[in-house]
Amino acid sequence: MSAPTQVRPDTRPEGTETTSDDTPEVFHYVRKDKIAESAVMGSMVVALCGEVFPVTKSPKPGSPVCPDCKKVYERMSG
After folding, report:
1. Could you read off the pLDDT of 5-57 as tens digits, one per residue?
2. Phi and psi dihedrals of 59, rounded to 5?
3. CA dist 16 to 8, 21, 75, 78, Å?
4. Residue 11 has what pLDDT?
5. H-assigned helices in 1-78
6. Is the predicted pLDDT of residue 4 greater than 50, yes or no?
7. Hey, which residues does 46 pair with through a beta bridge?
8. What gap in Å lies between CA 22 and CA 75, rounded to an integer?
């Protein structure tokens, strides 16, 4: 099953993978219009790399980004 994406999505990284102290290892790119809905309602979002998860954390400047999401985003915006 593939998720619909925009040609040039308005995205920002969102975290899913965590370390033992519950801090995200990497943040994923997801559709911006789905972030607030997921954070409030607990609904699932689909990252550009295909990961499916509920948004639970917000990235800080300099946070690591999922390399697969970054590659997809660069191909879409390039």
Report:
1. 444 445 555 554 444 445 458 999 999 999 999 999 999 999 999 999 999 88
2. -75, 155
3. 22, 13, 22, 26
4. 52
5. 32-41, 67-77
6. no
7. 52
8. 31
CA angle 46, 66, 71 (to 5 degrees): 90
State the amino acid at position 12 in one-letter form: R
| The model scores a pTM over 0.70 | no
End-to-end CA distance of the chain: 25
Please give the Cα distance from 25 to 71 (Å, whole number).
17
Q: Where are the domains of the chain?
A: 11-77
Would you state the structure tokens that stand for residue 20, as one six-digit string? 């033992």
Which pair of structure tokens corresponds to residue 48? 């550009």
Name every residue whose Cβ is closer than 8 Å to that of residue 4 and which is 6 or more positions away in sequence: none
Q: Token match 């409030």: residue?
A: 40
